[in-house]
Amino acid sequence: MENSNEEKILNEYISVYDKKIQDTCLYLRRFISKKHPKANQLIYNGYNTVSIAFALSEKLQDAFCHLALYKKHVNLGFNRGAEIENPELKLEGNGKLIRHYKVSDLKNVPEEELAVLLKKAVEISRLNNPGLKMDTRGGKLFIKSTSGKKRRP
Q1: In a domain, 150, yes or no
Q2: DSSP 18
Q3: Angstrom distances, CA of residue 120 to CA of 20, 76, 128
């Protein structure tokens, strides 16, 4: 995947952020990919943020988590985080479904707790779509179309 056209596009998208944010994004991306190597990555160059959704298919609705880059931090979001019982970490957000863990510094990333949350997020994703089977050829990058003026770095 390292030399793919999609990888180059992703690197272009994140290049507008400070190096610290780029490094945080890439670190978290590798961390999630190691835990779930068959998950596809859906890349969005959005209005407010660049985001990477990790999904059990090629559809956003099947995503179990995502990364969202902001000027001073990266959110590791759980797409159905409100349904995670007894989360190992305090998750932020008050919407109907999504919760996130904010990472602004790589010095103290709680990897063990995040790994447990990722496992729970995948389980919830599978429960909500019982027919969903992770494609054994997964682990692909997909650049998703976005349009409009960007309101971010």
Answers
A1: no
A2: -
A3: 28, 14, 12
Cβ neighbours of residue 15 closer than 8 Å, sequence gap 6 or more = 22
Q: Is residue 152 part of a domain?
A: no
Alpha carbons 77 and 114: distance in angstroms, whole number:
11
**Tally of structural domains, the chain:** 1
In a domain, 153, yes or no: no
Rounded to two decimals, what is the model's pTM?
0.92
Helix (H) or strand (E) holding 113, with range, is helix 111-128
How far apart CA 25 and CA 116 sit, in angstroms, is 19
Closest among 119, 66, 115, 114 to 90, alpha carbons compared: 114
pLDDT in 10s for each residue of the chain, 153 residues: 455 899 999 999 999 999 999 999 999 999 999 999 999 999 999 888 999 999 988 899 999 999 999 999 999 999 999 999 998 999 999 999 999 999 999 998 999 999 999 999 999 998 988 777 655 567 899 999 777 777 777
